Write a sequence for this structure.
């Protein structure tokens, strides 16, 4: 079953509403009163919609296997929950949900019990609910369906802006106006204190961990600690993770190049971008692995190996599906290796991810962290933002060049124009095939 843009939007809104109903009903049973459990004012819990859309996009290849569908649903939902929980905690410095009291939990964000339920939900979605929802959606006249969807998108955008403005005002009260900028603060003033106070009251009522007084006291304590040392990229924050991304991307490209030369005797490019030896998959992997396992870096090698094997395999699988959906290109194919899953991942390379996780956290990361923290703050900040600007430009040009390469080789009459001509001149087929020697065009 192919999922187009509008069907995915329908799935997002329907499952977001169903999730809101489920969360609100559970809160009503527990607290004996109605509590809107969403971040938004609309009856939507976007995390449910996001998970459902992720299932539709990334579990298509697994729909014939109940076991892998269940396992994929567990891993995908755990990833979405973990990222969402960390983002919300970065904003409020409080967990919006906490599974610390549950068995087999990870940092309070995810636990085995609820991940297993998500896995069952993945089977239910892919086998039964999604086909039913899409058949019902097809009964709507196409124009009416599109109008309804875009109205919902508009309402969602307005709701998100108002909720974000309320968050901005809460952050102002926490003494963080310097990190917000003028935009959200101006929006907050225009919306008025009455509206933002109502939204804030609803959030605190639904999630008692978001009490402002406690947040303010903890924020002051953190600021006092930061001003004492004046260490660049201390802990595991934005600047350190960003620099680790670049280091991991460079080292990953070098390691893959050497591995290919040793195993096949061929020296080939393993870069993800057109400028420089950088593997985006390895860079993001190093950054995500560090962010997720930072608090657990002192755990045993076996623990880190097991988590790295699972996370690395899931991450590589998602990257494979994403590049195929976006670019129509397969950059690696493990179909010839035993114990592979759709040619996207295989057991041997998943073990390599586990070994890489141990080596990274136990040996490489501590040294890199010390070196990064020795950089003077002002040059460190400047270097980081210059590298970010370079990589954004690099990824943009690489995406345009790859899209044009696919267009030239799949369309009988590729588009013409100044940009197309520039890409043809700078990135002809010979150069693209030299940069991406393993790229395989997919017939969509």
């Amino acid at each position: 079953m192919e999922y187009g843009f509008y069907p995915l939007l329908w799935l997002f809104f329907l499952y977001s509403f169903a999730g809101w109903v489920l969360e609100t009903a559970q809160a009503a049973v527990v607290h004996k009163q109605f509590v809107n459990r969403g971040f938004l004012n609309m009856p939507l819990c976007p995390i449910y919609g996001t998970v459902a859309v992720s299932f539709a996009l990334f579990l298509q290849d697994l729909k014939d296997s109940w076991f892998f569908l269940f396992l994929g649903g567990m891993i995908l939902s755990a990833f979405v929950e973990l990222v969402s929980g960390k983002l919300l905690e970065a904003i409020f410095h409080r967990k919006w949900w906490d599974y610390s009291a549950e068995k087999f939990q990870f940092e309070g964000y995810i636990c085995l019990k609820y991940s297993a339920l998500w896995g069952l939900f993945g089977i239910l979605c892919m086998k039964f609910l999604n086909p039913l929802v899409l058949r019902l959606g097809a009964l709507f006249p196409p124009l009416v369906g599109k109008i309804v969807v875009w109205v919902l998108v508009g309402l969602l955008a307005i709701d998100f802006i108002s909720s974000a403005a309320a968050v901005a005002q809460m952050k102002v009260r926490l003494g963080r106006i310097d990190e917000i900028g003028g935009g959200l603060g101006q929006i907050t003033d225009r919306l008025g204190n009455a509206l933002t106070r109502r939204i804030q009251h609803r959030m605190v009522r639904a999630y008692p961990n978001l009490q402002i007084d406690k947040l303010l006291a903890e924020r002051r304590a953190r600021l006092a600690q930061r001003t004492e040392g004046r260490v660049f990229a201390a802990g595991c924050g934005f600047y350190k993770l960003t620099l680790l991304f670049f280091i991991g991307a460079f080292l990953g490209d070098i390691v893959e190049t050497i591995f290919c030369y040793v195993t096949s005797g061929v020296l080939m490019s393993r870069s993800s971008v057109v400028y420089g030896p950088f593997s985006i998959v390895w860079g993001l992997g190093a950054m995500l692995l560090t962010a997720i396992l930072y608090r657990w870096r002192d755990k045993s090698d076996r623990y880190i190996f097991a988590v790295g094997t699972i996370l690395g395999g899931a991450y590589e699988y998602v990257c494979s599906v994403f590049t195929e959906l976006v670019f129509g290109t397969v950059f690696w194919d493990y179909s010839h290796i035993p114990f592979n899953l759709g040619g996207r991942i295989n057991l041997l390379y998943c073990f390599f991810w586990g070994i890489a996780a141990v080596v990274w956290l136990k040996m490489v990361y501590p040294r890199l962290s010390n070196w990064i923290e020795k950089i003077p703050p002002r040059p460190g900040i400047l270097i980081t933002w210059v590298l970010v600007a370079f990589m954004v430009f690099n990824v943009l040009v690489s995406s345009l060049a790859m899209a044009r390469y696919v267009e030239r080789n799949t369309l009988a009459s590729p588009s013409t124009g100044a940009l197309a001509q520039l890409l043809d001149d700078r990135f002809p087929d010979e150069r693209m095939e030299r940069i991406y020697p393993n790229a395989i065009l997919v017939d969509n």
Summary: DSSP finds 16 helices and six strands in the chain.
